[in-house]
Write a structure and sequence with these properties.
By secondary structure, the chain is an alpha/beta fold. The chain has helices spanning about 10-30, 40-55, 65-90, 100-130, 145-155, 175-185, 200-210, 250-290, 335-340, 350-355, 370-380, 395-400, 410-425, 425-445; strands at about 135-140, 160-170, 190-195, 215-220, 230-235, 240-245, 295-300, 305-310, 360, 390-395. A six-stranded mixed beta sheet has the order 2-1-3-4-6-5. The two termini are about 35 Å apart.
């Protein structure tokens, strides 16, 4: 199986966010606004801009968006920003603040940020059209008026960044297996399917294939009633497109928030806990059995890329560590190992993985490479887990599906909880899972062995 290549377009929105906040705060420092408390003013502006941008979706400019969409976002953002800016005077009793200087501050922000917004939009269009960068390889399933219109958009609107590779039609002799093989062999990113061309079972097969191979599947709608799920409408030029799965962490702003949280949380744990706990545990582990203090194991991360996952060693050294899970009463587990496994202390070195960007604090638990290869073939939608970074803890673990996989139901339910987490991520959910994990560690868990 080929895995998705890494891309850097996810950093565009966070970079724009940081640039805009820098402009706002630098202008606040250099213009003579005469505010009494500069820290309060900067904090107020930064928080206000972030809240307004989330409400107006100021940074939600997709590759197929029109310039009118960009200009509308600019207008909405600055209308609200203007109101919030002048509200500062009344909220915090600033009689000496210059209204004229505040208007000048607003005008400079409007001109600079608007120019940056439009310039970024135009440069990205030119980059895709002339340098063929930031592209997505796509195929289309179906042969009708709407699919031909979409193919024309892909071929004529090069600034959208879609590289059309091939059209398939079940009515013209192609079958789904031909499509599947082509998608895998040519590392296709997105599949566009005309609903009018597939039967219900074929649609389900397509959904399963896309999930299990981490491909983005979108539908070209007709009059069929397929709205059993909450679907997302998008428009490519004037062609309506339906997205089946909307993953919150594919939004670069959400990904940036989660990464920032991971960095802060992992840094606190490394500095405040691991800095003194590691030497103590190293001494105890070494006194009880020979071998390294840390145990590392190859596991699959985001987009199925392999990485070394770290733990405090809790077992005697054997040659089957990468092949055999720990089981109840496992004779390999040492005395100190039994304690650190029961309290989940053995997992703490994974905060180094989080700091390095290989894992997240919360996410689907990474499995051994052997188990990923096994379950990827046997368990439906198992590979969806790899759309996001794996976590030290996860929703499935807080619901009792941690540790040894004893029956097929264990892994099936774990995958269901993982997919629910992926499709419903929020920072509040992460914090709730972390709190539940700490509570479970204190109370003790049945499968913590």
């Amino acid at each position: 199986m080929k895995y998705k290549a890494g891309r850097y377009s996810m950093y565009i929105k966070p970079i724009n966010y940081i640039m805009d906040l820098l402009v706002i705060n630098v202008l606040a420092m250099i213009l003579p606004i005469n505010f009494v408390n500069p820290y309060l003013f900067h904090a107020y502006l930064t928080l206000a801009w972030m809240i307004i941008s989330l409400k107006t979706e100021f940074y939600e400019v997709q590759r197929y968006a029109k310039l009118t969409r960009v200009l509308t976002l600019i207008f909405q953002q600055f209308v609200f920003f203007f109101l919030v800016l002048y509200a500062f005077i009344g909220f915090f009793k600033q009689p000496n603040m210059s209204r004229l200087a505040l208007a000048e501050f607003f005008a400079f922000n409007f001109v600079i940020i608007s120019s940056l917004k439009v310039l970024t939009y135009v440069l990205l269009l030119r980059y895709r059209a002339f340098f063929k960068g930031n592209t997505r390889r796509v195929v289309v399933l179906g042969d009708n008026k709407k699919t031909q219109q979409l193919i024309d958009v892909f071929n004529s609107r090069l600034e959208f960044g879609y590289e059309f590779k091939r059209q398939f039609s079940l009515d013209e002799g192609d079958d789904l297996f031909t499509l599947y093989n082509y998608v895998i062999d040519h590392d296709i990113d997105e599949i566009y399917c005309s609903i009018a061309e597939v039967r219900d079972q074929e649609m389900l097969d397509l959904i399963d294939f896309a999930d299990n191979n981490m491909k983005l599947l979108k539908f070209i709608p007709d009059n069929k009633n397929i709205f059993a799920k909450k679907l997302k409408f998008e428009y490519y030029d004037y062609i309506p497109i339906l997205s089946l799965r909307d993953i919150p962490l594919e939004d670069p702003l959400n990904a940036f928030v989660k990464r920032f949280f991971d960095l802060v949380f992992s840094t606190v744990v490394i500095v405040c806990v691991l800095s003194w706990l590691t030497p103590l545990l190293a001494l105890v582990i070494k006194l009880e059995s020979s071998g390294p203090v840390f145990f590392r194991q190859r596991r699959h991360g985001v987009n199925s890329r392999e990485f070394y996952c770290y733990k405090f060693r809790s077992m005697a050294m054997t040659g089957d560590a990468d092949k055999k899970q720990a089981t109840k009463g496992d004779m390999r587990i040492t005395r100190v190992g039994r304690f650190i496994r029961r309290t989940s202390i053995d997992e703490l070195p994974q905060f180094y993985n989080v700091f390095l960007g290989q894992m997240s604090v919360v996410g689907p638990r990474p499995h051994m490479v052997k188990h990923t290869n096994l379950y990827g073939q046997q368990i439906d939608k198992y590979m969806v887990r790899h759309f996001v970074k794996p976590g030290i803890t996860g929703l499935a673990q807080t619901r009792g599906y941690r540790g040894e996989i004893e029956t097929e139901a264990d892994i099936v339910n774990r995958v269901k909880f993982d997919i629910f987490y992926i499709e419903n991520w929020s920072l509040a959910l992460d914090i709730k899972i972390i709190g539940q994990t700490v509570l479970n560690a204190i109370q003790g868990e049945e499968k913590a062995y």
